[in-house]
Amino acid sequence: MPINKKKTVDSKANQISLPKKTMLGLFDNLLKTRLLDERFRKLYRQGRFAGTYFSAVGQEATTVGPTYGLRDEDIIAPSHREIGANVTKGVPLDKIIAQVYARESSPDKGKSHPCHYGWKAKGVITPSSTLAGQTVVGTGCAMGFKIMKKDNVVLAFFGEGSTSRGGWHEALNYAGIHNLPIVYICQNNLWAESVPSTLQAGIEDFSDRAKAYGFPGITIDGNNVFTVHKTASEAISKARKGEGPTLIECKTYRWYGHSEIDPADYRTQEELEEWKRKDPLQIAEKILMDLKILTTTKREALVEQINQEIDEAIESVEKDAYAAPEEAYIDVYSEQFPVKRVDW
Amino acid sequence: MKKTTYIEGITEALDEEMERDEKVFLIGEDIGIYGGVFKATKGLLDKYGAERVIDSPISEVYIAGGSVGAAMVGLKPVAEIQFADFITPSMDQIIQQMAKMRYRTGGQWTCPMTIRVCCGGDIGGGLYHSQINEQWFFSQPGLVVVMPATPYDAKGLLKSAIRGDDPVIYFEHKRLYRWIKENLPEEDFTVPIGKAALRKEGSDVTLVSYGLMYHRSMEAALALEKEGISAEVIDMRTILPWDREMIFESVKKTSKAVLVQESSKTGGVMAEISASITEEVFDFLDAPVARVCGLDVPAIPFAPPMEHLFLPNAEKISKAVKNIIEY
Amino acid sequence: MEYKVIIPPLGESVIEGTIVKWLKNEGDTVKVDDPLVEIMTDKINIEIPSSYNGVMKKHLVDIDTVVEIGQEIAIMDVEGEVTESKTFDTSSVPTKEKIPPEQKAPVPAEEFSETAIHHRCEGIHADENAIDAGIKAIKSSPVVRGLAREHFIDLRKVHGTGKNGRISKNDVIKYIDARHTVDIVNPDFQFPDLELEEIIPVTGVRKVISEHMVKSAFTIPHVTTFDECDMTRIIAWRKRYVDKIEKEHGVRITFMPFIAKAIIFAAKDFPWINSTLEDDKLHVKKYFNIGMAVSRDNSLIVPVIKHCEQKSLLQIAKDMHDLADKANAETLKIEEITGGTISITNAGGMGALASTPIISKPQVAILGFHKIVEQPVVRDGEIVIRHISNFGLSFDHRVVDGGYAVQFLRRMIEYLEDPDSWVLGVV
């Protein structure tokens, strides 16, 4: 596959032909991700859960697009803003919500972090906070698939900031040597917490980095879920066939701060407004409506249905208890090595 | 039974486990074509092919983290870090991924893998080829840390590490590779992780150590025996989680303990064991717990007289024992 | 129903904020997610959305007020039930799996006191005060302190062989061993080879006694003084412990070891009783080698139990038993019948009510112990039945005055009449 860069980030570039079912499916997941994300932001402000929250609003297309259509056995190696990948991969809503609420019913039993979603049954790795950490692990998963001669693939998500990490380079280098079945999705949202991408690298397009490792790097509009899906799907099927990895840079933007307590005052209001006009949800909506696949009524019905699902799941999770404090002693090792308990 | 060196024990364990379970594969620098810089993986590339004996690029982050990923999808990786000195780039992957995978995923994902780390001084390796840094990993719950001292344990512990369900940092001591030989059984055997070995019974003092220092402790114990001092010698074998029971029971019996460790004293494994002894069996102590450790300098210096000064030996251990016997 | 609006946690390091603006005034209708209030923190300005539909009833704080996380800031009337999210409820998290710490069963007081009695009846065991004082006075290791308490040791009496005389665990173990087996028999001693030496017939032992007797009877001006001893309490003590001690240690404690101890205690104030008179010099002894007469078929022999002051009651009983066996087997060695500093003879065993024993030269006193008889005696104005024995003390009137001897005997009897006081170490 040639290195095919689209330098512009034009949300109107929608000459994408996808099956109607796929387009609706993508929209459904995009909408669900948005509604859930905004709900989490409110629940946080209402004091319904503790810790902090990392919103992905504005950049959902970069996770929903590549993930849609993956198999359960395919692996997602996420970072902390991949709520869309979880939703799209089919992680149950109550599992995602229980994670945020740190309840006993959470996949991690409440041990890690509100936004460290992961669910093995759907192949989503619970992430660590060291950025690009899962890029290395995900590459190892791909190595495993290759050694076992399985045709599963890995999707590794990270921001442009993570590409400055040494381990990131070691992983991509290795994937290049061994043609591993992995697709790297770089969500370039221009800001790594407070540091602009211009202070992160001396290149404009982070996909250029792939050149050094001998596989294609593509930069695309990360706010058009259909573009993202189509590009990623091609890369995924290539990887599945054993033809090696691809690095896809999705230009996008996060609307809110790094976390809910970050006012994001390091960037201008104009920049934010400009990107809000390129809202991935609205772009998808418009395309679908132009194609007559979606109507306002249908959209409203969908919103209502999703909100009801979310309401029910939240209600159920809020009733769940925290795990007993002694859960802290569990899953340090296999049962062979129980942890010595402290008698406080 | 056949005479086997420590490094041959390692090679045999790798070979037998690869033969036994096709999920076992090796990754590391120079381990394939070259057979390892110490020849621990000699012959394995020819036997098992390049997909299971992988010559990695110089990428310690990936060697560790890639192995984590492979373990998560069902393989049994055995990674090699050529020198313990070079493990530092891997630390993020070892601490944040390998050690915490089971915990942070609520037990959904596990990390059954082994990292072989070639370590230790007394070989004139100098500042960057003699390091022994087990204490970094000792303070990270979630990891299993072992350091065999004999060919039998080298083979048996490596097999247990590979077959187990937990992430293991397996320290192998360079000085022991070809120094000691032992008759090993022909049939398959393993050495349990978490259990120390009582190498010599004694009544006056307990000597606790592992790796090369076990041999130095035993030399000291045999010399002391001639002077009428009866030392009990424990080889920890597993450093984390360590065999509390055996050490405490021995100290309860002898009321005196000398703890021997090759790495620097401050913040070392023996600091923890010393503290635990005073916490758990204080009432049985008849003298302060003594430590004989490497110097608190950045690493083992190169010039032989400095290396000699750095390292504990039988003489230094005997002196420490006599000090607390006379206490 | 009424619902109190609180300040939610606003990030890891934020502990307070300032009310910037009320976005819902009192009386305003509120829908779920409507912003209620704007809070300013040092990190971010944040609008707090409503969790419920309802009406803003009352603001509890004014604008520009600093509020803490968790503080109630307004009251709302809300539709339906208020549900709680358990975010803050960490203080009262139910501990499902809480395992109560294993309780150590307390040692029953009675059992402990019996143990203590038992330990102390074994010999010169230190009492609590002495143990504590010893631990305070001597710098020692944890294990040594533990052994001192466990074995009733006054550390001041233990010889330390460590640096600067420090007491080691081994020193204590040696002390304990020594306490049980005071070295009074030199195991290396070889009886002279009969064929190479002048023959000393077995009757030689008898000869030695007779020589002593003759010398004693014809050189010492004997006086015997009598007193009555109420043995009721010591009989009760024996009854209580003798079987238990025999079961544990294989020795049946008779009255003799008690008498020996009573002599030792009484002699503290009357030291001349325990002495020898040799060449016009009175050797007042600081130790007690007590001769105890043992009857044999046709004679009486007085083996000597050495250093009774260092021995437990049990040990004295054991020694007596051993020496009696040897006496019967005629294997007593000379040193086992010499070196005494005072003697006891028990004529009571054969039924005697009184006797005037002959002093074993060069000792200056011998105590005769006689049959214990139940007798009516007057106690507190009432006639009661008590176990009474006569004690006769023969003394060398050359050096011991009558008053001195009478008082000694009285004092000794006082100890015997109240065994609990000293066996427990209370006195």
CATH level-4 homologous superfamily of the largest domain in chain B: Thiamin diphosphate (ThDP)-binding fold, Pyr/PP domains
The CATH class assignment of the largest domain in chain B is Alpha Beta
The helical percent of chain A reads 25-40%
Largest sheet descriptor of chain B:
7 strands, mixed
How does the overall form of chain A come out from the CA principal axes? globular
- Roughly how many Å is the radius of gyration of chain A? 20 Å
Strand order of the largest sheet of chain B: 3-2-4-5-7-6-12
Shape of chain B, please? globular
Oligomer: heterotrimer
The sequence of SSEs of chain A as H and E is HHEHHHEHEEEEHEHHH
Count of structural domains of chain B? 2
Task: Please report the number of helical segments of chain B.
Answer: 12
Strand order of the largest sheet of chain A: 1-2-3-7-6
Rg of chain B (C-alpha, Å)? 19 Å
Q: Total number of β-strand segments of chain B? A: 14
Terminal CA distance of chain A reads: 61 Å
Q: Under the CATH scheme, which architecture of chain A would be assigned?
A: 3-Layer(aba) Sandwich
Number of helices of chain A: 10
CATH topology value of chain A: Rossmann fold
Any guess at the CATH architecture of the largest domain in chain B?
Answer: 3-Layer(aba) Sandwich
Structural topology:
The complex is a heterotrimer of chains A (344), B (327) and C (427).
Chain A (H helix, E strand, L loop, with lengths): L19 H26 L15 H7 L7 E3 L5 H7 L3 H9 L31 H15 L6 E6 L6 H13 L3 E7 L2 E2 L2 E2 L20 E5 L3 H16 L5 E6 L17 H8 L3 H11 L5 H24 L25
Parallel strand pairs in A: 1-2, 2-3, 3-7, 6-7
Antiparallel strand pairs in A: 4-5
Helix pairs in contact in A: 1-3, 1-9, 1-10, 2-3, 2-7, 4-10, 5-6
Chain B lengths: L1 E4 H15 L3 E5 L15 H5 L4 E3 L4 H13 L3 E6 L9 H8 L2 H4 L9 E6 L14 H5 L5 E3 L4 H13 L4 E6 L7 E4 L12 E4 L4 E5 L2 H15 L4 E5 L2 E3 L3 H11 L2 E8 L4 H12 L9 E5 L9 H7 L3 H12 L2
Parallel strand pairs in B: 2-3, 2-4, 4-5, 5-7, 6-7, 10-11, 10-13, 13-14
Antiparallel strand pairs in B: 1-8, 6-12, 9-11
Helix pairs in contact in B: 1-7, 3-4, 8-12
Chain C lengths: L1 E5 L9 E7 L6 E2 L4 E6 L4 E5 L4 E6 L6 E3 L3 E7 L30 H13 L6 H10 L4 H9 L18 H12 L22 H17 L2 E9 L1 H18 L6 H11 L8 E4 L2 E4 L5 E3 L1 E2 L4 E2 L2 E2 L7 H17 L12 E5 L18 E15 L2 E15 L5 H16 L1 H5 L4
Parallel strand pairs in C: 12-16, 16-17
Antiparallel strand pairs in C: 1-8, 2-4, 2-7, 3-6, 4-5, 6-8, 9-18, 10-11, 12-15, 13-14, 17-18
Helix pairs in contact in C: 7-8, 7-9
